[in-house]
Specification:
With about 600 residues, this protein is an alpha/beta fold. Strands 3-2-1-4-5-7-6-8-11 form a 9-stranded mixed sheet, sandwiched between helices. Strands 15-23-20-21 form a 4-stranded antiparallel sheet. A hairpin with a 3-residue loop joins strand 12 (about 390) and strand 13 (about 395-400).
C-alpha cells in the first residue's frame, strides 16, 4: 500500500509542492474499486468523475471544492497520469478497506500547522474518559479532518454526530471520512464555531481538534462581540492573537447539563494573563474542570513543537470531586526518539486509571482545591514537581521545599527594588550611542564583562532611570537559561536589557549574599518550576518578587559571604596548582615518548 500511496503523493505534488490535494485523494477510495475502474476506462473520465462527486452526500460547497481540485490536477499532470492514479487506487480498494487506505494516506503526508492530529494514545485517553455509548450526541466545534470524531465513534451505532468548522480542505476531508461511518446520524456545517454554534445545550460530549497558532479573522472577532447565542457573556472572549480559549467556550455552550468535553490547549493558555485569566477564573468558579493533563514535550513532533495539555470538562462532577481539579503532570512519561515522544501503552493505561479514579500519585497527580489555585494558574507542573533533579556540580538531589517553610523568610520584593530591562530596537544600535546595554552574552560566570558592552542611541521619552544599573545591582536572566551576576562597575551609562530583571538590595541586605542565595539548589529549583512558555521559556517577574529570602542580620550575611569567598579563593588556588601538576605529568609522559623537544612553552 505504501508504495502506491507514495506514487500518488508524488504525482499530486507536481501540481503544487505546498499542497497534495489531500481532499481529492481522500475522496477516491470512497468510490470503491469497481466505480474507479469504470471511471478510469470511460471515454469521458473527467465528466464521469465530476458526476460522481455531485452524487456524494456532502455539502454542495464541498462538492465544488473537490471538482475544482480535480480540474486543477488533471490540467497539470494530464488526464492519462490521473487515470493511473485512479487505477492504482482501484487496486488498493480491492485489498483494503477505504477507511484504512485513507488513514494510511493521511499518515503519509505532512500537513504542517493546518493538519495537526492527536496521537492514537491521546485519543485513547479521551475515549476512555468520555465513555461513549448508544443514543449519545457528540459534538465538535472544530472538527479538523475528523480524527477526533472518528476515534470516538469507532464501531458505535445509533448515535448522533454534530460537527462544524470554518470551510477548508480539512472540513471536506472530515465530511468524506464521516460518510463512511454507517448507522449514525451526521450533521455537519461549514461555519466557524465562533460565528454561530449549530446546536445548544444538547450534546453529551464535546471533543475538538487542536488548532494551534491560529488567529481570529476580523469577521469572527466581530461576531463574537455581538454573539446572538449569548455564549461569551459570562466567560468573556480572548484577544485576537491568542484565541485558544474562545472555541472552547463556544463549544461548551453545546453541552447539556451533564455533558463532558475534551480540549487541547498550549501550555501558555493555562497561565497567560488578561482576558485568558478571566476565562480561567470563571471556569474555576463554575467548577466544571475535572482534570488537566500536561503532556510531555515533543508529543506532537513533527507537526508542531508546541507543548500542550488536555483539559477535561465535566458539568456533572461526582460529589467527591466537586470543588477540586485533578492536575496531572505527565511530562516525565513517554518514550523519546529522534522523531518525537510517544506514550507507552502501560502509561496510557496508567493515565486512564488515575483520571477515572481520581487517584493521587506523588510527583504525577494531585486533587487540588479550587481555593488553592494561585492567580488562576492551571498548569499542572506549577503544583506537581518532580523533586528529584540533577544539578550541575551537585549530582542528583532530592529537593525538599517544605523544609524551606520552616525558615523565617520575607519576600524578595520587600527587601529589594526589582526593575525590568529596556527593550532596545536593533536599529538604535550605534557605536557612539549614549548608553550601553547588558545582554546575556555579557554574563561571564557570576560577573558582568563591562568592557565590550553594545551601545545604543536611546532618545525620546524613554525613562532611562527605570533601567539604569547601579553598582552592586544583581541581574537575573528571565528568558531561557537562568543566569545570575553582580554589576560591580561604577559606570552610569549602562542599562539593563529586556532579557533580565534587576535586583537592587536595601541597606539591610548584602547583594553578594542574595546572589549566592539565588544560586542555591532549592531556589534554582523553585525558579525553574515557575518558568512558562513553549518555544522560549520565561520567568514571570511576579515569581521573582515572591522568592522567599531568609531573615538574617546584615552582619551575619557578610560573614557568610566572606567565609565562602575565602574558602573559594583557596579552592581555586588548589585547582590551579593541581592543573599545573596535571600538565607537568602529561609533559613528562610526552618527553619519555621522545616528544620533549617538539614543543616549548612561550613565557609571557
Amino acid at each position: 500500500m505504501k508504495s502506491d500511496l507514495k506514487h500518488i503523493i508524488e504525482q499530486t505534488k507536481k501540481v503544487d509542492t505546498k499542497s497534495n490535494y489531500i481532499s481529492l485523494i481522500v475522496m477516491l477510495p470512497i468510490l470503491g474499486s469497481e466505480e474507479l475502474r469504470k471511471v478510469g476506462i470511460a471515454d469521458n473520465t473527467l465528466e464521469k468523475l465530476i458526476n460522481k462527486i455531485k452524487e456524494l452526500p456532502i455539502h454542495e460547497q464541498s462538492q465544488m471544492y473537490l471538482i475544482k481540485e480535480l480540474k486543477t490536477v488533471v490540467d497539470t499532470i494530464q488526464l492519462q497520469n490521473f487515470i493511473n492514479i485512479l487505477l492504482r487506487m482501484a487496486k488498493l480498494c480491492e485489498e483494503f478497506d477505504p477507511s484504512k487506505i485513507i488513514d494510511e494516506y493521511l499518515g503519509s503526508i505532512k500537513g504542517g500547522k493546518t493538519l495537526i492530529r492527536p496521537t492514537t494514545q491521546q485519543n485513547d485517553i479521551v475515549r476512555n474518559y468520555l465513555n461513549l455509548s448508544k443514543k449519545h450526541i457528540i459534538f465538535s466545534g472544530e472538527v479538523g479532518i475528523g480524527d477526533e470524531m472518528i476515534s470516538l465513534i469507532e464501531k458505535q451505532a445509533d448515535i448522533a454526530v454534530y460537527a462544524q468548522d470554518k470551510f477548508s480542505a480539512n472540513f471536506v476531508i472530515a465530511e468524506l471520512r464521516l460518510m463512511l461511518k454507517e448507522n449514525i446520524q451526521k450533521n455537519m456545517d461549514p461555519r466557524s464555531i465562533l460565528m454561530e454554534g449549530i446546536i445548544q445545550h444538547q450534546a453529551d460530549f464535546v471533543y475538538n481538534t487542536p488548532h494551534f497558532e491560529v488567529r481570529f479573522t476580523d469577521e469572527e472577532y466581530k461576531a463574537m462581540k455581538k454573539d446572538k447565542q449569548n455564549r461569551y457573556s459570562y466567560f468573556g472572549t480572548t484577544g485576537k492573537s491568542h484565541p485558544e480559549w474562545s472555541p472552547v467556550i463556544a463549544s461548551l455552550h453545546a453541552l447539556n447539563d451533564t455533558g463532558k468535553g475534551a480540549f487541547y490547549l498550549p501550555l501558555s493558555a493555562l497561565t497567560r494573563s488578561v482576558s485568558d485569566k478571566k476565562i480561567r477564573e470563571r471556569l474555576i468558579e463554575s467548577d466544571i474542570i475535572e482534570a488537566i493533563v500536561e503532556f510531555p514535550k515533543r508529543l506532537w513532533t513533527p507537526q508542531t513543537s508546541i507543548s500542550t495539555a488536555l483539559v477535561l470538562i465535566n458539568k456533572n462532577k461526582t460529589n467527591k470531586r466537586r470543588g477540586l481539579i485533578q492536575l496531572i503532570n505527565a511530562t516525565k512519561l513517554g518514550e523519546n526518539s529522534r522523531v518525537g515522544t510517544k506514550l507507552r501503552p502501560n502509561e496510557v493505561e496508567f493515565l486512564n486509571h488515575i483520571i477515572i479514579s481520581g487517584e493521587e500519585k506523588k510527583g504525577v497527580s494531585t486533587m487540588l482545591s479550587i481555593s488553592d489555585i494561585q492567580e488562576a494558574n492551571l498548569l499542572p507542573s506549577s503544583y506537581i514537581m518532580d523533586t528529584t533533579v540533577a544539578m550541575r556540580g551537585y549530582g542528583e538531589l532530592e529537593i525538599k521545599l517544605n523544609e524551606l517553610e520552616t525558615v523565617e523568610t520575607v519576600e524578595l520584593q520587600k527587601i529589594a527594588q526589582i526593575y525590568r530591562g529596556y527593550n532596545a530596537l536593533p536599529k538604535t544600535q550605534a557605536n557612539d550611542g549614549n548608553f550601553a546595554l547588558v545582554k546575556i552574552a555579557d554574563i561571564q560566570g557570576d560577573r558582568i564583562n563591562g568592557n565590550d558592552l553594545t551601545r545604543y542611541q536611546v532618545e525620546g521619552r524613554t525613562k532611562v532611570e527605570n533601567y539604569r544599573m547601579e553598582q552592586n545591582d544583581i541581574v537575573l536572566s528571565i528568558r531561557g537559561q537562568l543566569k545570575i551576576a553582580i554589576f560591580t562597575s561604577d559606570r552610569e551609562d549602562v542599562l539593563l536589557s529586556q532579557n533580565f530583571v534587576g535586583i537592587r538590595c536595601s541597606k539591610q541586605y548584602d547583594s553578594e549574599f542574595i546572589a549566592l542565595y539565588l544560586q542555591s539548589p532549592p531556589i534554582q529549583f523553585l525558579l525553574q518550576s515557575k518558568m512558562v512558555g513553549t518555544t522560549v521559556v520565561n520567568l514571570p517577574i511576579k515569581d521573582v518578587k515572591n522568592v522567599p529570602i531568609p531573615i538574617i542580620s546584615i552582619e551575619k550575611q557578610r560573614s557568610i559571604v566572606q567565609e565562602y569567598k575565602h574558602i573559594e579563593e583557596g579552592l581555586q588556588e588548589q585547582i590551579k596548582q593541581l592543573e599545573e601538576k596535571r600538565i607537568t605529568n602529561k609533559t613528562k609522559a610526552f618527553t619519555e615518548m621522545g616528544l620533549g623537544k617538539t614543543f616549548t612553552k612561550i613565557m609571557n
